[in-house]
Design brief:
Cytochrome Bc1 Complex, Chain A, domain 1; six-stranded mixed β-sheet; 15 helices; about 20% strand
Length: about 425
């Protein structure tokens, strides 16, 4: 059973009751991320996410950590390009304590200068960690090239120089400007009584001034950029490659066909790229494709790590497999297998309360309503081979963009294999 309540200030609360479950997954979601920044405050959303755990008038950072540990389960937070989320999974009997703790963190965090300075050092170490992880670093570089100067290309962690100059006043100002109540969704899944859950939150939001004067700027839709391909030279054993092109918004009617195309291309072990490049030729240990969707845009990417000398052979193989989707009809058996893979993943996720809670929030942001697993499964079942081929022609007729990082120079990679 699912329910939705909108508080007087515009905060939405959505729940799904799973009566046989003895746990509850809770998330505070804010429709704010790195794309809602500019080049002078890039990194604010992520920095704010960290600071919500660093002390309130009632609790120190250490007390917050201790209380979360005592509650058991899991607790964490993350920032993406469009969302910030604070979440935890606890025993259903601990739900009132979790709401009280999360309400205090979300509405009464102090952002003290001492804690800001300490957390700045942690975030700068996060920068270093990404720079030491070439596949993560490369993806940030690829996305920046794909979107040009649009904020969707901004790194979620921010710009090092901007983060180094952050202070408490700037972070408070950012929250007051963008954390509008209408952008906040509280989602929960598990053994939850909706009315009681709403009452627990109502006491926190009834008197808050959070976001009372917020005026977040509207998001600007990105435009397609000229195809960009770059090599970032770095002394590494492997060459890491990311190839891709523009995809579809999260709400596109064609999204189900795109997800199936992705599964067929490189989304699992029986996919075309995994079989051709890893299993048949042994050219990569890991190769996969992925779909990233946003409220107004998206992209499809292929990622892999390979021996530098095989770069051009791999580019030729990827280019060939990508072009097939616009030229050939997917075999019936191959499409049926992809649908079964997706259907199994959908229903297996129903046993995970975190996954259910996440779906609740994302569907509320995207569609303003609950979307059942059966509805999604039925939509996938209706996709035909012609639908997949039409998407292939629409999205993959444009030459792929590309980025590589490793011990190669630009003149050692022949990007033209992606054009033929």
């Amino acid at each position: 059973m699912h329910n939705k309540t909108v508080l007087d200030n515009g905060v939405r609360i959505v729940t799904e009751k799973v009566a046989h479950c003895r746990t509850a997954a809770v998330g505070i979601w804010v429709d704010v991320g790195s794309r809602d920044e500019h080049n002078l405050n890039n990194g604010c959303a992520h920095f704010v996410e960290h600071m919500f755990f660093k002390g309130t008038a009632k609790r120190s950072a250490q007390q917050i950590a201790q209380e979360l540990d005592i509650l058991g389960g899991t607790a964490n937070a993350y920032t993406s390009r469009e969302n910030t989320c604070f979440y935890a999974t606890v025993l259903d009997s601990h739900l009132p304590q979790l709401v009280e703790l999360f309400g205090d963190l979300f509405l009464h965090s102090l952002f003290s200068e001492d804690e800001v300075e300490r957390e700045r050092q942690v975030i700068l170490q996060e920068f270093a960690m990404v720079e030491d992880t070439p596949d993560e670093q490369l993806h940030d570089l690829f996305v920046a090239d794909l979107w040009g100067g649009h904020p969707l290309g901004f790194p979620v962690l921010g710009i090092r120089e901007v983060v180094a100059a952050m202070d408490s006043a700037k972070l408070h100002h950012y929250v007051q400007q963008v954390y509008a109540p209408g952008k906040i969704v509280i989602a929960a899944a598990g053994n939850i009584d909706h009315d009681r859950f709403v009452d627990l939150w109502q006491q926190f939001f009834a008197k808050t001034t959070l976001g009372a004067e917020a005026s977040p700027p509207p998001r600007q839709q990105p435009t397609a950029q000229p195809v960009c391909r770059k090599v970032y030279t770095k002394p590494l054993e492997q060459l890491h490659l990311v190839l891709g092109t523009y995809g579809l918004p999260l709400t596109s009617p064609d999204r189900y066909g795109l997800y199936l195309l992705n599964v067929l291309l490189g989304g699992n072990m029986s996919s075309r790229l995994f079989q051709e490049i890893r299993e048949k030729r042994g050219l990569a240990y890991s190769i996969n494709s992925d779909v990233s969707g946003y409220s107004d845009s998206g992209y499809l990417s292929v990622s892999m790590g390979i021996e530098p000398g095989s770069a051009n052979q791999v580019l030729e193989l990827v280019g060939r497999e990508v072009r097939r989707f616009g030229e050939e009809l997917v075999a019936d058996e191959e499409l049926v297998n992809a649908k079964e893979y997706v259907r199994a993943g959908l229903y297996l996720s129903a046993d995970n309360m975190d996954a259910r809670m996440t779906r609740l929030a994302r569907n509320e942001f995207c569609f303003g309503r609950f979307v059942s697993l059966d509805e999604v499964a039925q939509a996938f079942a209706q996709i035909t081979g012609d639908d997949v081929r039409a998407l292939g022609k629409q999205l993959l007729s444009r030459p792929l963009a590309g980025a590589a990082i490793g011990s190669l120079d630009d003149d050692q990679i022949d990007w033209r294999f992606l054009d033929q």
